[in-house]
Design goal:
The chain has 279 residues and is an alpha/beta fold. The chain has eight helices and eleven strands.
């Protein structure tokens, strides 16, 4: 009996930390992939004990175990796009970079999780240097928020002009494209900037959605970009589609109480059926 079947799913791999509260990290990524009609897979970089009020503990996954997770899914199931999130050490960064090169992975979206909501820096300078050197050139786009972009360029960012200058500097540091997220700027308009290596700059602006439930916003946006890339969209369109999805998730979760702190988005407000491609 032949094992050849006529269809395949768009397959997206998340390489990130686990959030026991379910609002961010691997859990948010899987919910996003499913909501957008993709088949999600994971390679967990760290376990966290956390909820809506904060992180209680972090347990690192050994680099070899991380490499084994990536190898297992790539060699059997295959990968159409990748989302990278929390990488806590130079060894883990190098492990991920080596896997990208080993498997010739493409359509890689990197969300550099480096600064906690409290403002605490989650990564040391040595890891930042390895991250820039090893991952920037191997990813399709990096998606820092304002604090993370400021840490990377080593100066505070307060205006849209600062965002544009930071994006240009990050491109010069080796990134192929940069989405600088401006949600931390003051005002009723949220401005994000997508800067491409070609020199093209695309500003995306929308009215601010007022909600206490913003936990996992960055994880969700980057995983939505990866999902849309796996679905065949080009980068600019994938970012625009991901922003539309996350705005809906914020709006539909704005009036829901989950936990005592910053709650999650509503990832499942408009789920799509799993897409099937003819092989």
């Amino acid at each position: 009996m032949s094992t050849e079947l006529p269809y395949s799913y768009p397959r997206v791999l998340s390489i990130a930390g686990s959030d026991s509260g379910g609002g961010a990290g691997i859990q948010a990524d899987l919910k996003t992939f499913s909501a957008l009609g993709c088949f999600g897979m994971t390679a967990i970089t760290a376990l966290t004990a956390q909820n809506t009020t904060g992180v209680r503990a972090i347990h690192a996954v050994p680099p070899q175990m991380l490499a084994d997770q990536i190898d297992a899914v790539v060699e059997d199931i295959g990968v159409n796009a990748v989302k990278i999130g929390m990488l806590h050490s130079p060894e883990i960064v190098q492990t991920v970079a080596s896997a990208i090169q080993r498997h010739a992975l493409h359509k890689v979206v990197f969300d550099p999780v480096m600064v906690a909501t409290s403002g605490a820096v989650l990564i040391d300078n040595a890891a930042v240097q390895v991250l820039v050197r090893e991952l920037f050139p191997r990813t399709a786009v990096i998606t820092p928020n304002l604090d993370e972009a400021a840490l990377l360029v080593q100066r505070p960012l307060h205006t849209e002009g600062d965002m544009e200058a930071a994006a240009s500097q990050l491109l010069a540091m080796g990134a192929n494209a940069v989405l600088v997220k401006g949600g931390h700027l003051q005002g009723e308009v949220v401005s994000d900037l997508l800067a491409l290596a070609s020199g093209e700059k695309v500003w995306m602006r929308d009215s601010r959605i007022h909600t206490p439930n913003t936990h996992g916003t960055g994880c969700t946006l980057s995983s939505a970009i990866a999902a849309h890339l796996a679905l065949g969209q080009e980068l600019v369109q994938a970012v625009q589609s991901a922003r539309a999805y996350i705005r809906g998730a914020l709006q539909h979760g704005a009036e829901v109480r989950t936990g005592k702190g910053s709650g999650p988005l509503n990832h499942s407000y408009a789920p799509l059926p799993m897409v099937r491609y003819r092989t």
